[in-house]
Amino acid sequence: MSGVGPVEPGEGTHVRDAPSAPRPRRGPLERYFEQHRRAVLGALLISAVLAGSGYLHATRPRPESPPAPPHPSQVTTVAYLNPQAVDVETDPRSFSFGVEVTVESDPPVTVTRISQPYAGLSVTSDPRTPFRTKAGSPRKIMITMRVTECGKVPRNVGLPFLDVTLRNTHAIQMHSFILGPRYAQDLSHALQVACSNDFR
Amino acid sequence: MRQRSLIAITAALAAGALTLTACGSRDDDGGGSDSGNGGTTVVIGVDAPLTGDLSALGLGIKNSVDLAAKTANKEKYVEGVTFKIEALDDQGQASVGQQNATKLVANDDVLGVVGPLNSSVGEAMQKVFDTAKLVEVSPANTNPALTQGVNWQKEKVRPYKSYFRTATTDAIQGPFAAQYVYNDAKKKKVFVIDDKKTYGAGLAATFTEEFKKLGGKVVGTEHINPESKDFSAVATKVKNSGADVVYYGGEYPQAGPLSKQIKEAGAKIPLVGGDGIYSADFIKLAGAAGTGDLATSVGAPVEELPSAKEFVANYKAAGYKEAYEAYGGYSYDSAWAIIEAVKKVVEDNDGKLPDDARAKVVDAMQNVSFDGVTGKVSFDEFGDATNKQLTVYSVKDGAWGTVKSGTFTG
Amino acid sequence: MNELPQQLVNGLLLGSMYGLVAIGYTMVYGIVQLINFAHGEIFMVGAFGALTVHLYLLPDGTSIWVALPLMLLGAVIVSVLVAIGAERFAYRPLRGAPRLAPLITAIGLSLALQQAVWAFYPEAKSKLPFPQIEGGPFSIGGATIQTGDIFLLIAAPVSMAFLAYFVMRTRTGRGMQATAQDPDTAKLMGVNTDRIIVIAFALGAVFAAVGGVASGLKYGQIDFKMGFILGLKAFTAAVLGGIGNIYGAMIGGVVLGVVETLATAYIADIPGLDKFGSQSWAEVWAFILLILVLLFRPQGLLGERVADRA
Description:
The complex is a heterotrimer.
Chain A: H1 28-35, H2 37-58, H3 72-75, E1 76-84, E2 94-103, E3 109-115, E4 121-126, E5 131-133, E6 139-147, E7 161-167, E8 172-178, H4 181-194
Antiparallel strand pairs in A: 1-2, 2-6, 3-5, 3-7, 4-6, 7-8
Chain B: H1 2-23, E1 40-48, H2 55-74, E2 81-89, H3 94-106, E3 110-114, H4 119-131, E4 135-138, H5 145-148, E5 163-165, H6 170-184, E6 189-194, H7 198-213, E7 217-223, H8 232-241, E8 245-249, H9 252-264, E9 271-273, H10 280-286, E10 294-298, H11 306-317, H12 328-348, H13 357-366, E11 370-372, E12 375-377, E13 389-396, E14 399-408
Parallel strand pairs in B: 1-2, 1-3, 3-4, 4-5, 6-7, 6-8, 8-9, 9-10
Antiparallel strand pairs in B: 10-13, 11-12, 13-14
Chain C: H1 4-32, H2 39-57, H3 64-91, H4 100-120, E1 128-129, E2 138-140, E3 143-145, H5 147-169, H6 171-181, H7 183-188, H8 193-219, E4 221-222, H9 226-241, H10 246-266, H11 282-296, H12 306-309
Antiparallel strand pairs in C: 1-4, 2-3
Helix pairs in contact in C: 1-5, 1-8, 1-9, 1-10, 2-3, 2-4, 2-8, 2-9, 3-8, 5-6, 5-8, 6-8, 9-10, 10-11
């Protein structure tokens, strides 16, 4: 290996402190301060007191506000019950099923709208929306769907859902309830019946 | 020829280097929790990617578990037991995860493990934990096969009794995304891309199936290499396919650049993904092009849950450097589920840990039920969370905003 | 719409990047018969050097047109310093050692550089955003080119022309050819071979730095392991083109990039091969091509040795 390493500093070689800069001449600001010492100090004191009290005011202990009521979607469950017999004579393209709306805790939740996202299907409910549900008293709702256009209806979906608009004193939300595989089966069965060629 | 044999050796070495660096393990001792109230120490293992691309999510998991352990210690939640965490880094690699699992099993103080993040890693760890009867609760694995067996679509069979998760599965997430994209966003032609990993490919498959059933058209499919960052060829294909939406099954390190390059190629269509892309880092990587991209993620939005607000406040107060990210609440709940199970076991045994504590904890876990950060936490017969909520988010003004949520009540 | 022009452009751009890095492999190999596996990391530190200039040395809001030359300069300085340092402290002491020793040193150095950036560069544990050139994409003959790619499109041929001029016309370049042909004789003829070797490393680093900046501009992000995969690809490109040959490196890179892109785009359309057509298979096709080339033309597309051609 060749090459020269860095030269080691010998004894007594050390970096000298740079001489401190000479005191700058007094600027206009300082001269002003000299002349109005009292007024300046007074103003400073007043602003300090103001700032301090402002801080104390802003951070003063406040009474705990009561916890906001929960979002409606967090306390509401919509569970699928079973398909309902319908009077085929009146409208062969309709079918109904029951769901149960449960609210777990107060305040009561109002269902303002029930819909479902597929084109070619319209939805009505009994009782009609809006209706209120209180905690502890589940409501059974009958939902009736009517096929308006068979060509647009998905025949065999895996996880269909209902879009439900919920409202309580805290918020209004649209929430999807995925009703599970049994609902999916019943729905596609009902759609097949409704759109079969038997009555066309 | 000397040169040529040198090249051959080099090529072999190169291939070796590729695999070796993929397996190199880097251990990381998690910040130990405060101890102090004496008695027995119970260690909660954590396995997550703490370094590398997915570390944003992984560190959020680790910190949240740490917060749960600290909270339990502070409240003296289990009399006579101090909780500590041991965090191991799996780098998102199944092989590393398996080594970590073996390590955690070997430590007798470990009575439960939170993790991992990746479904592929979870797959590799399950058996190790199950043989040792050590409970594993994943906050983030969403592949259905982990709890319901590989044939979950036909017949659900739980493969491992010691595996639980707090996250919702892709059996719900994929279809939920499909419904949203088809019905609400009114997109009818999709180009499906995945990264071929357990999570990504599984999610893309459940999405595709539902999208087709709804009447949508799949105009192209593509599998990308997660090591790559040049997706220009794929982006050009997407553009020429005439798709009006892209679904990506995978994680944000690839999803971000993919979204950017697809838009650069001239296809101004949204990219939709699952919980794996629901990270602030996605927006950073996708840049301005990411606006309008969608992600579904497990759980309800934090602002809707009062319990979650408390978690967010405590997390901030604890001063963790990294954000809690998508799985923070689930990780806290996973750790808390273990704490609840340990509490039950200790109380049933006159305040002491029994000799077969691990097996008892597994049994206790099945019946755990409490109000957690993400809502009610309990597990069904497969070890899946009973609380199944999902939310659609979209990128607006450089941040994820809530679009719509849903609950599975089947 | 025909996507072939766009896919060719995609491949050309990707390939130019491979080519820029491959030049470093091929030059060092041509002169000292060393495969410098740390070269991918030289590319990576170059990108980080450019980012450092942008983040820490330039005031916020500097126009990219002012910043870009300075970033490029920063990238070149960092890359060249690291490359010369590697040559001086890692490879030179092993000059007389068996071939495997420097090779393994190179792999070790590659990991060390990666981990050093990972550990010490602020926030390098995740991907870092790289400044972008504003402005919309340009459309040329049915293909779209991003503003970020224009730099690469200009830099690659300019670098190539400069290198060709340097090797052919300058005194140092001729010294390089001589050293490549026969280092001992060159030494006897008064060529300072140590200096030539350093220059070869430095020149390779310059091109890697240009590639690093191009990569940052193109993908909008850099990370500590960006050099690893790219380094392997570039090495493959160098072998494909004929290692030791500087033109071969560029051509090998372009061929590799185009093959990968076209494999992604078209293999799936061939009946029976739809399973093997996705991007995750593109590298497999690229390596199949490499094997075929090496089977029928073991010296690579353009043959070995910088001296025979350059």
